[in-house]
Design goal:
Elements (H helix, E strand, L loop, with lengths): L1 H10 L3 H9 L14 H8 L1 H13 L2 H9 L4 H16 L12 H11 L1 H18 L2 H19 L4 H14 L1 H9 L6
Helix pairs in contact: 1-5, 1-6, 2-4, 3-4, 4-7, 5-6, 6-7, 6-10, 7-8, 8-9, 9-10
Amino acid sequence: MPLLGLGYLSGSWLGALSVCRIAGVEDPRLAGSCNPGFSNVLRLHGRWLALATLLLDAIKGMPALWLAMGLGLAPWAQGVVGLSVLLGHSYPFWHRFRGGKAVASAFGVMLVLTPWVALCCALLWAVLAWRVRTAAVASLASAGLAPLASVWLAPDYVIVVMAFTALVLARHMLNIQRLGRGDEPGL
């Protein structure tokens, strides 16, 4: 299906790399957590570059999803297109499969497919990031909320949201280990 390829290609554009190159600052894969995502860019280069990274990573897969919806694909097929965006972000071929953790990209995908679920998860993420000051805790809790919220707010998408959550949790295994040891970096 061509939309899967489009999803993967759009997902594999890592917003953090573009933002940091344009700003003339260090590649986020070379410092901090070495993750090309919002949290690492925030710690390394400040809130404006982090917000630009978040925006790019959230919107990059939307055209593929709008096409899937416009073609009248079933919710599960739309979800597979969304999953291809997340896989592109997490495992980009051009960057030797070293990508991000898919939190911002999952937010963007869910904003198109399940907007109320996405907004509930974003609210939880913001509250936890503010109170706990640890992006991993906020991300893991938000990912855990997504399938539960989708049962109520988007029942046709529960299975695909569970797949998104599984990917985000898998991408955070090192963070989970660091949280267990008490040495996860804060925001």
